[in-house]
């Protein structure tokens, strides 16, 4: 009976948050507290943006509001949105009813979901009340649920002023309809042009006739007619571009941009200089017949490029190029850097623009980056771990065996750490070649930690080289300063190991690594296992002591380095017999450790290779 009781309690406790999770939207009492009845409020900075597409609000007008996630790994599961009047100090107005939503709160001032959304962004339409006052401000306050355990409360927009002189604006039906779809734009697509490969050359990612981007062109004498289109995340200010490169990397590339500027879509020609994009003079670009549109997340533009008119950085039809497609967020007509998570798609071979072709875009591969990650995984998650663990816990083993006059534990420790030094330096050289110098990782909201990866990497290399140099000046075992060396040597090694694990974590999160999300659970298991193993090894002597009922008297100091230093030889047979049990468990745990760290690291390497 007791077992059944505790089982029920455990089940209720475990499932309690799920029972209180309202997939049908926020209950009415949630409006009072502006929070759901489940999960915990996150104290982290919100990964969501609230954008209001209006400079001012007039009574009776309609306003479009966009809620979007800045992190591709974070989706919106549910919302509760309201609009606050600063002067009246209360929620006012109402939202346009749409599928998957329902009105909420007193006087229907709020809107919430009727079922789980799981979308990266949402568009809402708000109706301003007729009784707004001049000088008032409206703030949109949104509680966003990421999952049943985490939500962000009070995510606010910037205040929008009330202007009684402004005309009342109604959102067009097409915009309202687009907002009411409430569908994730990720995964949506448009129909492929049936003329691709026959009368029109195309560069696209189409599968089964559905595309998320397409670049089409026709060669006509000295001119090329281009049509570009792509599905975006639905934000108002976006850009798409096609680049023409002599290799598969960004740098020294000619780029044609299709970018939103206010209510229009414009086309510009630019040039990639290293990792920076420089826009060229439109008057000398040779671009004409520009047209474009942006609706329902689909941005499209067409233009004609005259090859006889070339700016300082141009391209010629007589050369072949790798084509690159990229997209990102714009700001007042200027291009912001593309996402570092979704890298530009690149043709796997050079394309002759004068020929009719039908080429697909592949995700670029970075073999040097993958090799760098593999070397760092082997050197730190395997070799360094084995070397440090053997130094800490392997000294009492094999007390009477000293190949070449040196203890076995020291052979393993030294070999592992020297291999770590060599592989780390090799990994550094590879990434310097790939990045052509110090790696520059662009800023990205919610991913700022990525920028410390190269800094941590250089610090690891410095500590890795410093430690064996320190070992050359190791005092003798009888020196009174030996303990200073011991603490410094261990401290530097342990610090480098911790930093390396952090660097591996961040490295796998970088887009160029191509690592799948499944590597992170493996890394977490690796860390948890290490903690459990160290605790077990530290407690082992006390467990054996309690079991034997007497104190263990073997030495765990650095005098076990050589055969002549070892104190284990002086132990009499009776003491050795009492130590046998601990040695047996110690040996068994060390073997298990070697196997576990090797298997986990091999799993990471395999995932990295196939990712």
From TrEMBL:
What is a single cellular component term in the Gene Ontology annotation?
membrane
Locate the Cytochrome b561 domain: which residues?
334-545
What does the record say about its membrane topology? Answer: Multi-pass membrane protein
Species in which this protein is naturally found: Patella caerulea (Rayed Mediterranean limpet)
Q: Where in the cell is it found?
A: Membrane
**For this UniProt entry, which segments traverse the membrane?**
373-394, 415-435, 455-475, 487-508, 520-544, 588-610
**So what family is this one in?**
Belongs to the FRRS1 family.
Q: What is this protein called?
A: Ferric-chelate reductase 1
Which InterPro entries does the UniProt record give?
Cyt_b561/ferric_Rdtase_TM, DOMON_domain, Reeler_dom, Reeler_sf
Please list which residues make up the signal peptide.
1-21
Q: Which residues form the DOMON domain?
A: 211-328
Cofactor(s) of this protein: heme b
Report keywords, A-Z: Electron transport, Glycoprotein, Iron, Membrane, Signal, Transmembrane, Transmembrane helix, Transport
In this chain the Reelin domain maps to 12-177
């Amino acid at each position: 009976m007791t077992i059944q009781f505790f089982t029920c309690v455990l089940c209720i406790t475990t499932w309690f948050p799920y029972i209180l999770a309202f997939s049908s939207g926020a209950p009415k009492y949630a409006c009072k507290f502006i929070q759901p009845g489940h999960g915990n409020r996150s104290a982290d900075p919100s990964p969501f943006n609230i954008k209001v597409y209006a400079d001012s609000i007039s009574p009776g007008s309609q306003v479009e509001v966009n809620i979007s996630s800045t992190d591709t790994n974070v989706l919106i599961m549910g919302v509760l949105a309201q609009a606050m009047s600063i002067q009246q100090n209360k929620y006012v107005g109402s939202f346009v009813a749409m599928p998957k939503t329902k009105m909420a709160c007193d006087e229907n001032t709020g809107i919430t979901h009727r079922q789980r959304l799981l979308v990266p962004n949402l568009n809402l339409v708000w109706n301003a009340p007729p009784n707004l006052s001049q000088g008032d401000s409206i703030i949109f306050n949104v509680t966003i649920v990421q999952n049943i355990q985490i939500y962000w409360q009070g995510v606010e927009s910037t205040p929008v002023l009330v202007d009684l002189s402004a005309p009342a604006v109604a959102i067009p039906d097409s915009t309202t309809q687009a907002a009411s779809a409430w569908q994730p734009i990720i995964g949506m697509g448009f129909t492929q042009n049936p003329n691709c490969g026959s009368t029109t050359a195309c560069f696209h990612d189409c599968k089964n006739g559905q595309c998320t981007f397409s670049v089409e062109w026709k060669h006509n004498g000295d001119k090329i007619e281009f049509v570009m289109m792509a599905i975006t995340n639905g934000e108002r200010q976006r850009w798409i571009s096609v680049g023409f490169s002599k290799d598969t990397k960004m740098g020294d590339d000619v780029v044609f941009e299709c970018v939103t500027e206010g209510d229009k879509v414009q086309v510009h020609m630019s040039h990639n200089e290293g990792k920076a994009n420089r826009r060229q003079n439109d008057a000398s670009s040779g671009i004409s017949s520009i047209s474009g549109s942006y609706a329902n997340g689909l941005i499209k533009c067409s233009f004609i490029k005259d090859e006889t008119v070339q700016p300082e950085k141009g391209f010629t039809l007589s050369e072949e190029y790798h084509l690159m497609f990229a997209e990102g967020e714009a700001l007042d007509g200027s291009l912001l850097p593309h996402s570092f998570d979704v890298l530009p798609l690149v043709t796997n071979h050079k394309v002759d623009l004068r020929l009719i072709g039908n080429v697909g875009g592949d995700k670029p591969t970075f073999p040097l980056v993958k090799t760098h990650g593999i070397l760092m995984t082997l050197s730190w998650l395997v070799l360094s771990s084995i070397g440090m663990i053997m130094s800490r816990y392997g000294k009492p083993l094999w007390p009477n065996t000293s190949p070449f006059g040196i203890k076995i534990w020291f052979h393993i420790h030294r070999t592992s750490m020297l291999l770590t030094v060599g592989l780390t330096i090799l990994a550094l050289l590879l990434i310097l070649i790939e990045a052509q110098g110090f790696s520059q990782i662009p800023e990205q909201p919610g991913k700022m930690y990525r920028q410390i990866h190269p800094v941590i990497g250089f610090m690891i290399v410095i500590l890795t080289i410093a430690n064996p140099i320190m070992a050359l000046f190791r005092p003798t075992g009888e020196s009174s300063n030996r303990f200073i060396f011991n603490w410094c040597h261990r401290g530097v090694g342990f610090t480098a190991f911790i930093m390396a694990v952090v660097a591996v974590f961040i490295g796998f999160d970088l887009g160029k690594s191509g690592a799948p999300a499944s590597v992170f659970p493996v890394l977490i298991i690796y860390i948890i296992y290490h903690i459990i193993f160290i605790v077990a090894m530290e407690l082992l002597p006390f467990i054996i002591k309690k079991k034997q009922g007497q104190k263990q008297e073997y030495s765990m100091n650095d005098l076990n380095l050589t055969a002549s230093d070892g104190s284990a030889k002086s132990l009499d047979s009776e003491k050795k017999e009492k130590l046998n049990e601990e040695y047996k468990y110690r040996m068994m745990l060390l073997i298990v450790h070697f196997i576990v760290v090797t298997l986990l690291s091999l799993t990471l390497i395999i995932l990295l290779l196939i990712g």
